[in-house]
Write a structure and sequence with these properties.
binds zinc ion; globular
Length: 357
């Protein structure tokens, strides 16, 4: 026990130093998972994260590296929160700091901190560059920012898969054995076709046929159906990146929101965490776009470890939380907090359950 505790503490210290000094020697492409965090499968709910042994409040639980990440900013040319496109960097680049754009001028949102980052990212970017040149502007004009971002994230997932298959990416080798990484992990995400409305699936299918088919512009060798299935999983599992913590509970008074979204990303391991409206994990991206999970209270052995999928300071009452989760993530929340706030059967007969305030 004492030996393993020492190892854990050393590891935590090393990780904490790493987080505080993101530019130092340690590589940013290596995920880290707390030794007491394990993956389980339960009937109906599917996969979950849980503690195999007690975890103390404040301990780091996971640092996951994105499989794909896109910046989300209003005005890329003047934005100070545009992220470097080199996946192993993903730092915010300041406007006027000498950041570099693509020589082919594919998209104003594609920048690198410097020539080192650009060179390191050359092969990956090559996969998306022609697609962006051809489709980014028309998709934005016709379908809007949300659908463009969704499709660009899919293209970046395909670029990572391409790199992995060419063995140009070393993410697979560094996969923690308890957790899958890479394309394997993306394929095992929850979020099947039939959890989405037919109209939604039809609209995604139309987008895939028009813009995401395998072609010389986007050579991925997957069928249109496989790409639609990938979108279903991406939409159910991607994270918005915000400057402050998500999932602080109880919500402090006065409430602190998580700030403006600056990116969206897909994480192979962090995606396993289920939602709770009274979560025991807070999550926040670090300076390299990695997702960091921290225990927000003591967690007992065997307890499920959950995050919040939305800003708890913004949606307070039961109905608004459930409506939001149902709309965006396709499930009715049955977490401890929602169950406790449900009206008793007698009350619900009087008021009518779905409209209860
Ligand atoms: Zn960079
Ligand atoms: Zn380009
Ligand atoms: Zn809930």
């Amino acid at each position: 026990m004492s030996l393993s505790t020492t190892t854990v503490e050393k590891r935590l210290l090393a990780t904490a130093e790493h987080l505080n000094a993101p530019n130092k020697s340690q590589p940013t492409s290596v995920p880290w998972v707390h030794p007491h965090l394990e993956q389980g499968v339960v009937p109906i709910k599917g996969r979950q994260l849980r503690a195999s042994q007690p975890i103390r409040q404040g301990e780091l639980l996971m640092i996951d590296v994105p499989y794909a990440l896109i910046p989300v900013v209003d005005d890329p040319a003047s934005s100070d929160s545009l992220l470097c496109s080199n996946p192993t960097c993903s730092r915010q680049t300041q406007h006027g700091s000498g950041r570099m754009s693509c020589p082919s001028r594919c998209l104003a949102d594609v920048v690198w901190c410097n020539s080192t980052c650009q060179e390191a990212d050359e092969l990956r970017h090559e996969f998306e560059c022609t697609w962006l040149q051809r489709y980014a502007a028309p998709i934005r004009a016709k379908w809007g920012e949300y659908d463009f971002g969704m499709m660009w994230l899919i293209v970046r997932i395909l670029a990572s898969r391409h790199m992995e298959r060419q063995q140009l990416s070393d993410t697979e080798n560094q996969t923690n054995q308890r957790f899958k990484g890479g394309w394997d992990a993306i394929q095992s995400f929850c979020g099947s076709l039939d959890s989405w409305a037919h109209s939604q699936v039809r609209s995604w299918t139309a987008l895939v046929k028009k813009y995401l088919r395998s072609s010389p512009v986007l050579p991925h060798d997957l069928s249109a159906d496989e790409i639609v299935a990938l979108i279903c999983r991406e939409e159910a599992n991607s994270f918005g990146l915000y400057p402050r913590e998500t999932g602080v509970y109880p919500v402090p008074e006065p409430p602190v929101d998580r700030g403006e979204q600056f990116a969206a990303a897909v994480y192979p391991r962090a995606a396993i965490a289920n939602h709770s409206c009274s979560p025991n994990i807070m999550h926040k991206p670090d300076h390299h776009g990695r997702m960091v999970f921290t225990a927000s209270r003591d967690i007992a052995a065997g307890e499920e470890c959950c995050i919040s999928y939305f800003d708890l300071s913004k949606r307070v009452d039961l109905k608004s939380r459930r409506d939001h989760l149902q709309g965006l993530f396709r499930f009715v929340c049955g977490c401890d907090r929602c169950s406790a706030e449900e009206p008793s059967e007698k009350e619900s007969n009087w008021v009518g359950l779905p409209f209860l305030e």
